[in-house]
Design goal:
six-stranded parallel sheet, 17% strand, Rossmann fold, alpha/beta, 44% helix, 2 domains, 359 residues, seven-stranded parallel sheet, 16 helices
Length: 359
């Protein structure tokens, strides 16, 4: 069976991590798999090439030229299934489906509040009626899809959480008892990721907490100036000894292994990979109340916060820093258990594979 995965770019984002997980699983399962994208962002190109996965880089900034290029690709490769990630590629797949002769799964992975209110966005997603299945990686996002596309049959709607190889993501590195409380943030630098809110929260902390805190942020600059503005604010508050910035990395596991906790402070998310991976590696999570996280982390509410309220972020950080090593380990163990129940790549891949096997 031939499966073509399409996405807007192959940068370092969460959807790209998931598309790589799926591509590797399909290839290992003897599917004829390929990946196509249309923006020049190629963080995963080296890994794609190393794995021997066919790929197509159709760089077209003009939407109609892009439709034409992908139409030609579908005609020449004749995939049995197209699996599209994110709204733009998903709508593209829907529009070309009547001519392409393929079956289609679209994957929505963002719960952007403005999109929920936008008439244009709702009309845009009406194209999903042409898909065979509409998948999301959170129930919160599926609620949005159901509201935006009220005529979408329930049989087409599937929630499949992010998939992880739980053996790979097992944490065998001991970092407990380290002198510094080390928070890792794995995220590109975009305004919605709320670096400013995190800086304000750290500035509120007492000096005794700040002296024992290190925050390492791994992610590339998106160009919206949020990173530069954050760095200036760090200088203004004299927090240079707290914040450290690194580019995005492929060896995420080693980075997470070095953490005391994983942090996420976004305005909104689909279901963040960093949280899922941190849980799988037995790490406590400090996070804003986005997506399904309030339900998934319902037994550690003292570590949840509101993105627009620096005081709640500061309080969540302080709550974690005041915990004993035994308490942090206990929360980490609870997170690992939850991860094995809901993020298993074996179980989630079986669910998606069952969709691909439908007529």
């Amino acid at each position: 069976m031939k499966v073509l995965l399409i996405i807007d770019n192959m940068g370092s984002g969460g959807a790209q991590r998931q598309i790589m997980t799926l591509a590797k699983a399909l290839k290992a399962d003897d599917f004829d798999v390929a990946i196509a994208w249309y923006y020049n962002s190629e963080f995963y190109l080296g890994e794609i090439t190393q794995l021997g996965i066919d790929h197509y880089r159709l760089y077209e900034s003009n939407y109609f030229a892009r439709l034409k290029s992908f139409g030609k690709l579908f005609k020449s490769t004749r995939p049995d299934w197209v699996v599209a990630y994110l709204p733009g590629p998903s709508v593209l797949g829907c529009l070309l489906k009547p001519l392409g002769g393929y079956k289609l799964i679209v994957n929505e992975r963002s719960a952007k509040p403005s999109a929920q209110k936008s008439i244009k966005s709702r009309l845009y997603r009406m194209a999903y009626l042409l898909a065979n299945y509409v998948c999301t990686n959170s129930f919160a996002n599926m609620d949005f899809i159901s509201e935006s596309v009220p005529f979408l049959p329930p049989t087409k709607k599937k929630v499949i959480y992010n998939s992880l190889d739980l053996d790979y993501w097992a944490d065998k590195t001991e970092v407990h008892g380290q002198d510094v409380f080390h928070m890792i943030v794995l995220s590109s630098h975009r305004r919605l990721k709320n670096l400013k809110g995190l800086i304000e929260a750290v500035n509120i902390l007492n000096e005794s907490f700040r002296q024992n805190l290190k925050i390492s942020w791994y992610g590339d600059d998106s160009g919206d100036q949020s990173m530069q503005e954050g760095q200036k604010l760090i200088e203004t508050y004299g927090l240079e000894e707290v914040f450290y910035f690194q580019p995005a990395v492929t060896d995420v596991k080693s980075v997470i292994a070095s953490a005391t906790v994983i942090g996420l402070f976004s305005e909104y998310e689909g279901l963040p990979n960093a949280v899922c991976e941190g849980m799988a590696m037995s790490k406590p999570i400090i996070a804003t109340k986005v997506s399904d996280l309030p339900g998934i982390l319902d037994d550690q509410k003292e570590l949840l916060c509101d993105y627009q309220d620096a005081n709640t972020i500061s309080k969540a950080i302080k709550n974690a820093m005041k915990m004993s090593q035994d308490k942090l380990q206990l929360i980490g163990a609870m997170n690992r258990k939850k991860a094995t129940e809901i993020f298993s790549s074996v179980n989630n891949y079986k669910t998606l594979k069952s969709l691909l096997r439908t007529a």
